[in-house]
Amino acid sequence: MKRFRENETFQNVIQPTRQEVLDGFSFKGKWHTFFKNNNPIIVELGCGKGEYTLALAKRNPSINYVGVDIKGARFWRGAKTALNDEISNVAFLRTQIELIDLCFSSNEVSEIWITFPDPQIKYKRTKHRMTNPEFLDKYKRILVEDGLLHLKTDSEFMHGYTLGLLQGMGHEIVYANHDVYHNEGAPSIVIEVQTFYEQIFLDEEKPITYLQFKLR
Ligand SMILES: C[S@@+](CC[C@H](N)C(=O)[O-])C[C@H]1O[C@@H](n2cnc3c(N)ncnc32)[C@H](O)[C@@H]1O
Known about the structure:
By secondary structure, this protein is of the alpha/beta class. The chain is built from 10 helices and 8 strands. Helix content is 38%, strand content 22%.
């Protein structure tokens, strides 16, 4: 509750109600008014504490980053760090990823990062899997043409499912690595940043996978 209340005072946190998003989200197509510049926008879905959002923002001050998660108490950490460290190219949006195409307009997003999503292994949970065709369709609607997507996960199931789906649907797989810390070649940001959940999986000695792709 304390974090929830504090989030409401943070200038880098946006917490629309579901109804507000459904009725017409105020920043859709107008994120430049939030950031007060026309720099490209990169979105991290299911950002948790926002490790990637922050690390990327620090490295690329001329790009804006939006961490999206339904749990405000998690991204409170990232939002507070961004404010303390005066990282101004960062925002956190509390909403359901299912509504992402109501939060950004077409061509408003340059890249999407998906970091350690729940793989939703059971067949009945397929509709909640964040790389299923329905979600990919929403991502395509907000991405610029040729926009990159990144999937970093401990789940070999999620990695394989996504690879198979992308191949079957004729999308472009730019780069795939099924064990980034043991097989050379992953981008440095993939090797150098570990998220909260990733650390748990690394302690369990699970291989970490990474996919970079484009939707056609
Ligand atoms: C396994 S955690 C990973 C968090 C973070 N990326 C990390 O690696 O530490 C998955 C995150 O996705 C968020 N999430 C899951 N389903 C979501 C949805 N439909 N809409 C918004 N956030 C969602 C959860 O709240 C959680 O913070």
